[in-house]
Design brief:
This protein has helices spanning about 10-15, 30-35, 50-60, 80-85, 95-110, 115-120, 145-155, 210-215, 230-240, 280-300; strands spanning about 40-45, 65-70, 90, 140, 160-165, 180, 190-195, 220-225, 245-250, 270. α2 (about 30-35) packs parallel to α3 and α5 crosses α7 (about 145-155). The chain is an alpha/beta fold and about 300 residues long. The protein has a seven-stranded parallel β-sheet. A three-stranded parallel β-sheet has the order 1-2-3, with helices on both faces.
Length: about 300
């Protein structure tokens, strides 16, 4: 939203809001938020550390409501908002198609070595790695919400089999040929593992050393969900042993990816910058929704600009 902020000023004004853009590329620190937030009635939260300390500082000033931009809420202390009486909501269901597009792009990229070939040609070579076909392969899909269902539809169109893992999915709503399973049952059947679930206490390091020992040798792993769903040390060990063929990661446990990360040594891997949802269409759709929700909370509140 920050990169397109001027496009939303008119809509904000029509909703009775004055937009003030944070002077930052992506996130402010807790200290910066504690200093700035008390001067605003509303906060549209990105990946910032939306902690109890930050909300308490804001509430001591003018902060009256907040909206988490996007889907993921693992950086937001909702319990603190409840205790402090600050209404808050996220914008669910906004990016299912966009993130699914990237997930499928990564599946194809790992299957056919497209990124590896690109790097080779740019370096002056003419590489011819032999890939694998998608048809007939099995995908273990972790998370079957909006993103997972969009990903499944695209992969089914490529004649792939889908085993979905999601403890919150209603079995009655999951239609064949997608098959629900309890983690980690049937993991040994998967040729590809795609992570697109949220980060929760139960999903933290869900893909760990034990899971990678169980999975089929030569598996290709994709993560477009949250970095800590995968135990990165276990994944690095899997890549080094060859049990994991390759990985495509849009998210990491530490972001940006550290310069000394062992992941950088694996040429068959593909890396993103936590950018799977970032399309102009998606940003416009989500930003307008966030503004509407924030205006709804602030209706009748004291005059103050919305951050």
């Amino acid at each position: 939203m920050l990169g397109m902020i001027e496009a939303f000023r008119g809509e904000a004004a029509a909703l009775g809001l004055e937009l003030v853009a944070a002077q930052v590329t992506q996130t402010l620190s807790e200290a910066e938020l504690c200093e700035q937030l008390p001067g605003f009635a509303g906060w549209i939260i990105g990946d910032d550390p939306a902690s109890r300390r930050v909300f308490a500082a804001g509430q001591a000033g003018q902060l009256r409501a907040a909206v988490k931009w996007g889907i993921g809420v693992d950086n937001v202390d909702f319990a603190a908002c409840k205790d402090l009486g600050i209404p808050i909501i996220n914008t669910p269901g906004m990016f299912g198609a966009e993130v699914a597009d990237i997930a499928v792009g990564y599946v194809i990229g790992l299957a056919r070595h497209t990124f590896e070939i690109d790097r080779g040609v740019r370096a002056g070579g003419w590489p011819k790695p032999r890939g694998v076909s998608l048809a007939g392969k099995t995908v273990a899909l972790i998370g079957f919400g909006d993103i997972g269902r969009n990903t499944a539809r695209r992969l089914l169109a490529a004649d792939m089999a889908i085993i979905a893992y999601d403890p919150f999915a209603d079995p009655a709503s999951v239609a064949a040929p997608v098959q629900l399973a309890a983690w980690p049952e049937r993991l040994e059947e998967a040729d590809f593992l795609v992570v697109n679930c949220a980060l929760t206490d139960s999903s933290f390091h869900l893909v760990d050393a034990a899971a990678l020992e169980r999975i089929k040798p030569g598996v290709r792993i994709i993560n477009v969900g949250r970095g800590p769903v995968i135990d990165e040390q276990a994944l690095i060990a899997g890549l080094e042993s060859g049990r994991v063929h390759s990985a495509a990661l849009d998210v990491f446990e530490t972001e940006p990816l550290p310069a000394d990360s062992p992941f950088r040594e694996h040429e068959r891997c593909i890396f993103g910058s936590h950018n799977a949802s970032n399309t102009e269409d998606g940003v416009v759709r989500t930003s307008l929704e966030a503004l509407k929700r924030l205006a709804g909370f602030l209706h009748g509140a004291a005059d103050a600009p919305a951050a």
